[in-house]
Model the fold of this input.
Amino acid sequence: MIKEQLFGKTLTELTEIVKIKKLPSFTAKQIADWLYKKDIRTIDEMSNLSKKAREILNKSYEVGLNEPVSVQTSSDGTKKYLFKTGKNYIEAAYIPSDDKATLCVSSQAGCKYACEFCMTGRQGFQAHLSANEILNQIKSLPEFKTLTNVVYMGMGEPFDNLDNVLKSNEILTADWGFAWSPKRITVSTNGIISGLKRFLSESKCHLAISIHTPFDDERLRIMPVQKTNPIKDVIKIVKNHEFGRQRRISFEYIVFKGFNDSIKHADELARLVYGFHARVNLIRFHEIPGTDLKGADEKTMVNFRDRLNEKGITATVRASRGQDIDAACGLLSTKELKGKS
Done:
């Protein structure tokens, strides 16, 4: 018998389970406390539940936490963890620094959006991750207690799996869940408008939008999503939304040599995102097979950043981490493992 997993359930879902099993109503809050605030792996460890309650739950349910399959460690301290999810594999990148420890989590196995510069897109789409599989990357991380931030910037497009992403956001931020501040969480998207509207209204977490060029024809060449979700429409929706002081929006911009690195690009990008408090993160391109795109040199990236700053846009060059273990931006892929799963 395949048991259902409790980890990844909301308090509402746990309340319904308790009701169906005819257990005391307060049991739902007790289970949530064990799942999200304590370190357990079995229902039998939920010591303040009656023996009868644990026996009833054990018949149909399990906690549902799974340790990573393997880990690779970069020379810069970044770690890339491999997790098995059903018949597929996913990767998560742990990125420590002097004052922070960030985990880059996956929301899908593979991705269907086929961006020209991304290895995940090259392997195609395999599956949406459940809230359990998303949160398992966090809770089963050996460094879990050191984490200061989580970014949904790993494998997959979060807004293509928005129900489970929002559910995981709820569990991370709810008082009965992990009780994290939404300011510790950033969700990235390539700009799916339907998902963007829902996310802005249903979540208080930070938002990051991948632009990579301000010109429609160029963006369509490297990001097929541009055909149905034009970046200008995405920006318009964001500009019309009231963010407040506690919520941050940023724009991701990979700088490609001779493609989107000119002063003309910087000026148009500044014009596009001008008018509300936002940050542009300039990202180094890590070259992958099968594309003519190349990374811009350091001088070009600095000049691009300075031009944006001159135009009144806060811009920074993001430090590249974990490149030697393929954990840097755009490099996550489990294509080679697909046939072995």
About this structure: The mean pLDDT is 92. The longest helix spans residues 298-310.
